[in-house]
Amino acid sequence: MAKTPMRVAVTGAAGQIGYSLLFRIANGDMLGKDQPVILQLLEINDERAQKALKGVMMEIDDCAFPLLAGMSAHADPLTAFKDADVALLVGARPRGPGMERKDLLEANAQIFTVQGKALDAVASRNVKVLVVGNPANTNAYIAMKSAPSLPAKNFTAMLRLDHNRAASQIAAKTGKPVASIEKLFVWGNHSPTMYADYRYAEIDGQSVKTMINDDAWNKDTFLPTVGKRGGAIIEARGLSSAASAANAAIDHVHDWVLGTGGKWTTMGIPSDGSYGIPEGVMFGFPVTTENGEYKIVQGLSVDAFSQERINITLNELLEEQNGVKHLLG
Ligand code: NAD
Ligand code: LMR
Which of 77, 129, 172, 217 has the fewest CB atoms within 10 Å, counting from its CB? Predict the structure, then answer.
């Protein structure tokens, strides 16, 4: 028997990430090849943006996706998020050349307060929310705080792009296939302070740290390359990453809904106090997922270098959080 369609709300649907994301959701890449979807697409209440959205929807129509059970355009989050099972909060102002992510904090805080309240009012009580729009962790924190009647655990931030970037760098360094890398993850904020940790990573049961055996490469090449990748792409393209960001969003929700089968991945989630991260801070953690729920991988030791890196990214997040406190009432 055919499954009941899942309602997927996407904000910023006419933007560049949207253009890489929507077709893949409708194609079943995110929720499974047997899962019909209904797309509820939100754009700003602006003639050009709404017209562009209509154009994207025409193209989606023209793909004749068998899994697409419905699609609607919205200018109001209260209708876009109605009964949503999944909400991908992509719409925000992207960072341009030379801009720091913190510069965007205030403007985006307004957007995510409104959207958090709307999710609270109309979304499914089990809605899975992924925030992609930057600064992703703090925007997710704001949305979560603005939706007190929804479980906090329903709100997540996208660290998966950093995770995938780290995996790709390690595959290149070791000469091994990216799919063979396990137990890799990223701590903290989706920003250059994130800490991609391969101390526990394995390839075919062998320690990646032993295979690489080069702490200087970790500190001087790997971490800066992964941390500054977003900026490097902006410099090269004149636009922020889009297809890789959409791909990471697909991976994040796919694994959250369908499970990792015991494998580790990275999600930005509200801390439960694990590893000394204060409760509620939206932080990248190693997780496994099963039956639509994530669980933090416990019991990992944190050496002095790692603790120092974790503290840096945590302090940045606490600062961001403090910077928006006044907006949260
Ligand atoms: P874009 O400017 O191409 O598209 C953003 C779209 O969002 C625009 O069409 C805009 O009209 C819309 N929008 C703005 N405010 C909105 C609102 N309140 N409601 C609904 N729609 C709204 O930008 P993009 O390249 O698609 O990037 C989107 C966001 O994703 C940016 O903040 C970017 O920095 C971020 N990003 C995050 C990651 C990550 O790993 N977390 C990676 C890449 C990009
Ligand atoms: C990225 O990591 O590619 C995005 O978050 C864009 C950015 O501003 O770095």
Answer: 172
Question: pLDDT tens across 157-169, in order?
Answer: 999 999 999 999 9
Q: Judge contact between 113 and 325, C-beta under 8 A.
A: no
Nearest residue by C-alpha to atom 9 in ligand 2: 230
What was the ipTM of the complex prediction? 0.99
Question: How much distance in Å is there from the Cα of 93 to the middle of ligand 1?
Answer: 5
74 is catalytic: no
pTM: 0.97
Q: Which residues contact 3 (CB under 8 A, 6 or more apart)?
A: 34, 35, 36
Q: How far is ligand 2, taken at its centre, from the CA of residue 271, in Å? A: 23
Angle at 188 between CA 106 and CA 235, to 5 degrees: 65
Local structure of 38: helix, strand or coil: strand
Cα 13 to ligand 1 centroid, rounded to whole Å: 8
Sign of CA dihedral 314, 320, 323, 325: negative
Which of 74, 163, 190, 252 does the annotation list as catalytic? Answer: 190
User: CA–CA separation, 170 vs 206, rounded Å?
Assistant: 13
Identify the H or E element spanning 182: strand 181-182
What's the mean per-residue pLDDT of the chain?
A: 96
For residue 254, what are its two tokens?
């796919």
Whether residue 135 is preceded by a cis peptide bond, meaning omega within 30 degrees of 0, is yes
Q: Closest ligand to 90 CA?
A: 1
